[in-house]
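Hi F.,

I've been meaning to write this up properly since the lab meeting, where we talked about keeping a consistent format for the predictions we share between groups. The idea is simple: the sequence comes first, exactly as it goes in, then the structure tokens exactly as they come out, then a line or two of notes. No screenshots and no reformatting. I'm using this chain as the first example so we have something concrete to point to.
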Amino acid sequence: MLSEQVLGSHLALHEAQQQERLFARQQARLRQASIDVGRLHFHELVAQQLANHSKRPKLLADAHARISQWEQDGLCWSGYVVAWKSILAMPLPQLRSAILAADGEGPALRQNSPFFGQSIQA
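Output, unedited:
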């Protein structure tokens, strides 16, 4: 009888711990989704700025400089360097689509963006 009570207590504790871990994972996913939305919003502002012919050259030059720094100092995975170089060489409509892509590489690329650190205003 006592062992059944101990087993029941152990199972209840295990279930409570499982629930805590599940809740923690759900909270982490929500935080990450919020961060991803912020990155997407930032890149929407970048796309707007790139549409401005007078601002585009400096934005692209600064982005290329950032990528060169990544490459020179080994600050970023080479796959991101290659992908961003390719994106920055695209015509504006394709560049815009690439930086705003909701699936595929879009969210991952926005984690390491050469536009971070630039003065982007709404």
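Notes:
The first helix runs from residue 2 to 50.
The mean pLDDT is 88.

If this format works for you, I'll send the rest the same way.

G.
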